[in-house]
Design a protein that fits this description.
Elements lengths: L9 H20 L3 E4 L10 E6 L5 E12 L10 E6 L1 H8 L5 E6 L6 E5 L6 E2 L4 E6 L9 H5 L8 H14 L6 E6 H5 L4 H10 L3 H7 L3 E6 L12 H13 L14 H10 E10 L2 E6 L1 H22 L3 H15 L10
Parallel strand pairs: 3-5, 9-10
Antiparallel strand pairs: 1-2, 2-3, 4-8, 5-6, 7-8, 11-12
Helix pairs in contact: 10-11
Length: about 350
C-alpha cells in the first residue's frame, strides 16, 4: 500500500532533539526557565533562558539561545567544535540586546557544547561564518556558574523605591538637602554623580515636590582657599559644564540661606572676578546681564519641563519662577500671573 502522506524530515526531527535536550538541561538541571521562540517569530533565535535565583525568584534577567544539532557540527580532531551560520543571522545575533549562547548538540548521546557569541572570535568568509566552541565547555551543571555570570548582578530595585519613601518621611518643611561635590569631581569636570542624584530625587512627583526649594549644591576641598568660589577657575569651569548638563536648577530656588543659583550665576556670568562687594549677606559681582538672563531662562526651561511632566498648575509654576527671578535679579520683580 502506497502511503500518500507528508513525511517528517529528518532535519526537523534532529533539530527537535537538540531543542528538547537544551530545554531539559536549563529547566531541570539548572532550575531556570527555557522559553522557546514561537515558529512565527523565529528569526534566528531558538529561545530565551530566564534566570531563576536559588530562592526560586524569577529576576527578569534572560539570555538568548541558538541551537545547532547534528554530527556535522562536531569536529573529530582538534580542541574546538564549530558553530556555522549565515551572514544574515550574524548581523541579527550581534544586534541582540542580550548575550547569546551558541550551542551544538550531539543527537546520539545528547551531549551539548556551548560558547558565548563574541564578535572578536567570529571566523568570517565569503560564504558565511563560524564560531569556535571549546570541546571542554559542555552544557551541564558544572558550567552553571559561568553561564550565570552572563546575566549580571541582580539588583533589588524595590529597595531603592522604599528608600525614597523613607527619605520622604524625613524631609521636614524647614530642612534642606545638601549635595556636596568633592574637589576631584570639580577638577575632572565630573557632572555624572550629581546628575544621578538629581535623577533619583525627581523620579516621582511626591519626591520632587518634597525637595523643591530645599536642594543646596555645595563644593568641598577648597576650605583653606582664601578666594571666593567664583574666583577659583576650576569651579567656574565645572559650573559652566554643569549648566550644559543640568536643567533641574529650579529645585534650588527658595533656599535663600544657601543660594546655589547665586554661586552658579556668579561663576558663569561674572565679568570681573577680582572686584566684588558684600552687602547684607550677598556678594555683589560685576556680571553680564545677557549671560544672567540666559541662566534664568535655563532655570525656567527646566521648571517648564517638570511642570508639563507632572501636570503642575500655572500658579505653582509662577510661584517657583518668582523665586528663581528673585535670587538672580533681586531688584527686578517678576510680573504677576494674569
Amino acid at each position: 500500500m502506497t502511503e500518500n502522506f507528508p513525511k517528517r524530515q529528518n532535519t526537523g526531527r534532529t533539530a527537535e532533539i537538540g531543542i528538547n535536550t537544551v530545554s531539559t538541561i536549563f529547566n531541570d538541571d539548572f532550575g531556570w526557565v527555557f522559553r522557546r521562540t514561537h515558529q512565527e517569530h523565529d528569526f534566528g533565535v531558538d529561545g530565551y533562558v530566564d534566570y531563576v535565583s536559588p530562592a526560586g525568584s524569577v529576576t527578569g534577567q534572560f539570555i538568548a539561545v541558538q541551537v545547532k544539532t547534528g554530527k556535522s557540527y562536531l569536529a573529530s580532531s582538534g580542541q574546538m567544535h564549530w558553530y556555522r551560520d549565515s551572514k544574515e543571522h550574524l548581523n541579527y545575533f550581534l544586534n541582540l540586546p542580550t548575550p547569546l549562547l551558541l550551542i551544538i548538540c550531539n543527537p546520539e548521546n545528547k551531549e551539548c557544547y556551548w560558547s558565548l557569541l563574541e564578535k572578536e572570535k567570529v571566523d568570517f568568509s565569503e560564504t558565511g561564518w563560524r564560531h569556535p566552541i571549546p570541546k571542554e565547555k559542555k552544557l551541564c551543571e558544572s558550567s552553571m556558574n559561568e553561564i550565570r555570570a552572563l546575566f549580571g548582578a541582580v539588583e533589588n530595585h524595590v529597595s531603592e523605591f522604599e528608600q525614597d519613601q523613607e527619605m520622604l518621611s524625613k524631609i521636614e518643611e524647614d530642612s534642606f538637602i545638601q549635595y556636596s561635590i568633592p574637589r576631584k569631581d570639580i577638577e575632572s569636570l565630573n557632572i555624572l554623580n550629581l546628575k544621578k542624584f538629581i535623577a533619583r530625587i525627581t523620579r516621582n512627583e511626591k519626591l520632587t515636590l518634597a525637595v523643591q526649594g530645599k536642594l543646596y549644591i555645595a563644593t568641598y576641598g577648597y576650605e583653606y582657599d582664601s578666594r571666593e568660589v567664583f574666583q577659583i577657575p576650576e569651579i567656574r569651569r565645572w559650573a559652566l559644564a554643569a549648566r550644559n548638563e543640568i536643567r533641574e536648577w529650579y529645585l534650588c530656588a527658595g533656599e535663600e540661606r544657601y543660594s546655589t543659583l547665586m554661586w552658579i550665576a556668579t561663576c558663569t556670568c561674572a565679568t570681573n572676578t577680582k572686584h566684588f562687594k558684600k552687602r547684607g549677606g550677598r556678594i555683589l559681582v560685576e556680571t553680564s546681564p545677557q549671560k544672567a538672563i540666559r541662566f534664568v531662562m535655563e532655570c525656567f526651561d527646566g521648571l517648564n519641563i517638570a511642570t508639563e511632566k507632572w501636570g503642575w498648575s500655572k500658579k505653582y509654576n509662577h510661584e517657583i519662577s518668582k523665586k528663581i527671578q528673585k535670587e538672580i535679579f533681586p531688584n527686578i520683580p517678576m510680573p504677576e500671573l494674569e
